[in-house]
Amino acid sequence: MKIILDTNVFISGIFFSGPPYQILDAWRNRKVDIVLSEEIFAEYQRVANELSRQIQEVDISMFLDLITVNSIWVEAPQLPFNVSVDPDDDKFLSCALASKTKVIVSGDKHLLAVSGYRRIEIVKPRSFIDRHLKKKKR
Question: How many domains is the chain built from?
Fold first, then answer.
């Protein structure tokens, strides 16, 4: 299953335990594929570097290298109009459309508000685990 992770889910999965970590673990175990665009990855890098200055015990470069090599990359053109109230969130929708990915995992209220846009499901991390990962264990 292909998914897109918003930046907060990706970063939380690296630095903290809980559902975002479980999703990254599923990715590491090849239960899901993460889809990226250059714009999303640039945001991952920026936020990760900011946080790694505060939490120096975590080597963020290893995670960034791993996601660079083990993700599905797409060229995601900018949307012709804003979909989300926060235009910065539209890069995730653009990536989903370009890659035909049907699920974005996010805790962002603006992204969650546009769930269903062009049949793209936007779900919180816990909901994603319950609805998509736990099914695979059965």
Answer: 1
